[in-house]
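Re: the 282-residue chain
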Amino acid sequence: MTPPVGDLLRSWPVGLLLAAADVAIVAYVFYRLILFIRGTRAVHLIRGLVVLLAVTAISRRLHLDTAYWLLEKVQLALAVAVPIVFQPELRRALEQVGRGRFFPASLTSMEADAVSQVVDEVVRAAFILARKKQGAIIVLERETGLGDVAETGIRIDGLASAEFLVNVFAPNTPLHDGAVILRGNRVLAAACLLPLAEVHELGTEFGTRHRAAVGITEHSDAVALVVSEETGAVSLANGGKLIRNLDEQTLRETLQALLLPKEQGLGFRGGRDPAKARGRHG
């Protein structure tokens, strides 16, 4: 006689596998949610909520009744206020789930040949702009989604090519101010506003364009390429640091090291920094 399905599921080998699968699914969902909200305003909200919950637990433990009562009321107010304040982000997330784009393709998930092609187009565009002394910021999205940053500009969704990027930053055109966001091999948006790095952290000799390039890399794992309008110098921002005055070969090597899969690229962590090796680290 075949055992009932319920008894089969309760048997320890099957139950153990189901429990492991259950934990893995929940962990993966939370991991993707963390990646989704990194670099957005929701990060600061979550940090504040963690601090609030910790203080509430401490006040309850220490029997600080008045403080505990007040913190409980604050949490109740936040439960109502948070969905209202973050309504645009929640709507955008649900739209992406409905379109099947909750986990958008990024450069780090692309094949090495495709990444190298994007790098070649970006480098070629950067030095065409540098020769013309046309200022530009090109942000290459990695794991952290930059959808909220793209919302500050004009959506494009065009194939990333050197010619297209050069035309975007042509003077006296509607899109030349602000940054271009690249997602995979597509130009996601142009004329985007980026968060600025603090002046005391970067130095007073840098203008808004360089501060914006560094600022976006402080808030996300993106890589930002910036062309100076005054000097035509090409720099690269990564992890809140700025690598200045790169030549074409060094820029290509550095971008490939950052963007190619770890087993194929050098990477700043696992290998030699091409820009630093050439003595150009700023």
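The longest helix spans residues 12-37.
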